[in-house]
Amino acid sequence: MASIRSSLKRVYYGAVSAVHRRAVPLHHSPPMVTFTFDDFPRSAYVSAGATLRAYGGHGTYYAAPGWMDGGPATGDRYRMADLHELVGDGHELGNHTFSHVSCRKLTTDEFAAEIAKGHEALHRVVGDAASGNFAFPFGAVTPAVKKAAARQCRSCRSTLSGCNGPVADLNLLHANRMYSDSVPFPRIRELVAGAAHPGQWLIFYTHDVRDRPSRFGCTPRYFEDTVRCAVEAGMRVMTVSEALTAIEAASPDTPAA
Ligand SMILES: [Zn+2]
Predict the structure, then answer these.
(1) DSSP secondary structure letter of residue 167
(2) Fold observed for domain 11-250
(3) Most CB atoms within 10 A, among 20, 56, 75, 240?
(4) How far apart are alpha carbons 103 and 186 in whole angstroms?
(5) What are the pLDDT digits (tens) for 179-225?
(6) pLDDT tens-place string over residues 41-91
(7) CA 28 to centroid of ligand 1, rounded, Å
(8) Which H/E stretch holds residue 237?
(9) 179-184, long-range: CB within 8 Å, 24+ apart, which pairs?
């Protein structure tokens, strides 16, 4: 039964991947790695953000403003004051809808309104530092939602695993879990080794980063080991926004946004 379900899921997401694409070639781009954080718990900023900066990079934080100052789900959630510090440190603030809602619970128009409301709320706090990059809550996406989100966002990140390249679909960027309970570190090392080539862009996602993480997060050690592994493999640590700018510069005839 489980294998039928996973086969159906594969077919479904294969269909979503095939439509409403915004394909950009990465042929001339350097190998890039991006660390993203969904929701985001404060530890993702305080702990992982400091690690990224120590390695000369920054992260992309996808925030749902309706969860700001809220109670813990995957650890203590971010506060409004964190947003100013976050962007002041050079990290990117992306959008994750206002209410952190799955597109499966709303009509396409309602979901599009959630995306707009999320971005507006972040923009009210940090102005133009609120980027136009977006991540689908729960990784849920349909063809209609993919099309609608593409109109509103510079890029849309999914939770489909794999590397982006040599051609990336900016409307459905692939990303890989950094969950220390369920993704053994050798698997991370394999991913990095497979992606450490020009024309490849590897994106990771996680939630809390602390000594006793939720099953959706990772430990600080696991996080730092991953960053070091990628840097030693010659990958450039970039935010989503920085990576898109690098892609545009490498392929000026095919603007990424
Ligand atoms: Zn989320």
Answers:
(1) E
(2) TIM Barrel (3.20.20)
(3) 240
(4) 33
(5) 999 999 999 999 999 999 999 999 999 999 999 999 999 999 999 99
(6) 999 999 999 999 999 999 999 999 988 886 545 568 899 999 999 999 999
(7) 32
(8) strand 236-237
(9) 179/206, 179/215, 179/216, 179/217, 179/218, 180/213, 180/217, 180/218, 180/219, 180/222, 181/213, 181/215, 182/215
Q: What are phi and psi of 102, to 5 degrees?
A: -75, 140
Distance 97 CA to ligand 1 centre (A): 9
Domain limits, the chain = 11-250
Task: Tell me how long the chain is.
Answer: 257
Residues at Cβ < 5 Å from ligand 1 ion: 38-39, 137
Query: CA 77 to CA 31: how far, in whole Å?
Result: 32
CA of 155 to the centre of ligand 1 (A): 16
Please state the φ and ψ torsions of residue 60, each to the nearest 5 degrees.
-110, 125
**Cα 137 to ligand 1 centre (Å):** 4
